[in-house]
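Quick one: PQQ-like beta-propeller repeat protein from Plantactinospora alkalitolerans, structure tokens please.
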Amino acid sequence: MSLSRRIVLPATVALAVAAAVLPAGGVHAAGVPVRVAPVGVDPGTVTDFGVQQSALTVFETHYGTGADDRRVAYGVQMGSPGVLSVTDPVTRELLDTAYLHESSGAWGVTQASDGTVYAGTYPNAHVYSYDPRTRVTTDLGAPVAGQGLLYGLRPGTDGRIYGGTYPDGHVFSYSPTEGFHDYGAMYPGEQYVVDTAVDAARNVLWAAIGSHGHLIRLDLTTGEKRDIWPEALRGDASYPYDINLVGGKIFVKRSQQQALVLDPDSGAVLADGFTMNSRGTSTLAPDGRSVYFTSGNELWRYDLPTDTYGPAPDGAGAPVVGGGAGIGFGFVAGRLYATIGNYSGQALWYDPATGASERYRLPFPPQALDINNITAGPDGRVYTNLYINGNMAVLDPATGVATNVGRIGQTDGFGWHDGLMYQGVYPYGGVLQYDPARPYQLGTNPRELFRMQPDGQNRPIAFASAGSKLFIGSTPDYGLWGGALTVYDIATGIRTTHRDIIPDQAVIALAVIGDRLWAGSTIGGGGGTEPRATEAKVFTVDLATGEKIAEYTPVPGAFAISSVALGPDGMVWGLADGELFVLDPATGATVHRRDVPGNYTGAHDELVVNPADEHVYASLDGYLLRIDPLSRAVTVLRDSQTYRLTQDGQGNLWFRNGVKAPNGAVQYGSNLLRYVPETDGCRGSDLRPTVLTGAVDSRVRNRYGADGCTVNDLIRDEATWNSRAAFLVHVVQVTGQLVREKTITAAEMGAILVAAARSGVGG
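--- reply ---
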């Protein structure tokens, strides 16, 4: 059936159709759609600004022997890939750098009785061997399938080593003749074996278990397991973290740095009441009675025969200042040598006989490190923070130059308010305030506002602000359930923390929308836990009181609501487990759901709304997606290497790269990239769902044309027209072009013309 037989046009519309052949000059100038020049540079392209920082993160050192029995320190470092560095602690030379390919670093390193050095890596959880004589590094593979991290490597006899795993909490061994052996999970329901200690003579191993406090004594011959952790401490959030067997006693540093010395068989407490911040202790000193560790900023000594302890004295009897936490200890020619701290290569030697000491640096080689988080500031610059290392850099997009600002700690969340940056720092749940306009000075700029660890929180992830209020969403500490929403009044300094605002769930997404705070939760608890709740929620909060108003379930059974945002259509948009949803803010009803490419990857998943083209952009699982706010059609812009999405004031999108490992972990993400959205012909588009002319609804679905203008944008019914005929000619010209472009059909053109004729626009 032809268009003319289906729709009978009024006379005015017929005249307009005839007038469509007239030159454009017949239309009032006000009827010409406003075209906006492109914003930014290189629309539709990605610019790689390269590595933002090379820095040093040393996890642990093992003092052992190298070629020709030279005394050396083996340090495992974070990098792309991970690194095993060999240094001489006496001459302070870098002797070798071995790359642990396919890894991002290693938490454990040791030397076996046959001289082979072993590193246990993440996120691939492989064991690597290094031969000090040949300098050959070999990937030996995974000791236990399905793990992400290896911890606590310790030597046994006959070239054998032992270690622990996460997330299944196994103990394993490796020997060159027998390969790997899995001793199984150490404690039901626990995920971490964070350290081990070995008595090779008795063939017994001890496993430190996080996150609820267990210390398992494993008879390696019979397989018998027994928990010797003191009964009073079981279930405590401060669990065994670093353990060492020295002189027949177990030294334990707990996760919150309290220290104990235990009988290795009964678990009886031999000493306590002191703190330890080092990665465990030294081996037995040459005097046969001393064990060394760091406590706070000082070097401490423990006397084995008397079970007494205190600061190691210098020549004048004053405490020796170590300069930080020890991450490895060894003895060379009667002197104690220690690597101090993770981030600057500090080291210390101490002579127990004279009290002499010296602080110096070892030449560990800096590496390109993964970006942990990104934020675009109101000053037009882009700030990045390094994973684990915690250094912050700032990029000037105009010059492409990135400058190191200083170390603030691993920032899992950024927020902005009145030009000031707010930083959520793991692992102590710190919230810091930083003024980019002033010089960096840790302690004063940034300055710590408060810590959330006393409230059971360790990762402040989500930030939003309204008025003088700063809202912070956080996840609980290891072994705990129940995140929090914290309200901090910047003007008064008053803080209120609403713990467990959604029972047994954490708060990982925030957005101020209208007169409420909208939030998204996750059923995930702290590290080492299994979820207690069954599905994530969206909830709303009163901006004045911080009290919860209502909660909704947009995606039943979802693990996490990882992002919420005000959509260009006035609706609340969100992501849940790789699914897009849209809520009506007036009712909380879910009005749209659809799967999008990519799977849930945690708090990294993000939605932003571009003010330039009104489209919604999403990053998840490496994808960069562009979502049409009218049709909600999804366009894949990138199908990999897109993580930690953020947006600057011009609408440009910033993110880091990264390679997804077989176990789902993302690594090698040290580069910062920018995507400039495509040119939009009409900024501030009319997003009403149907095409209206004046007040008359054509019932034709509104949509975008090829140039980023919607049909409602192109029909200029708000302009001043000389006559109705002039307006109708304009409508015919616009809709005719849209038909030729196949944006609308001929039937839809007719319906729009009928509505235009009835609208009264133009008199």
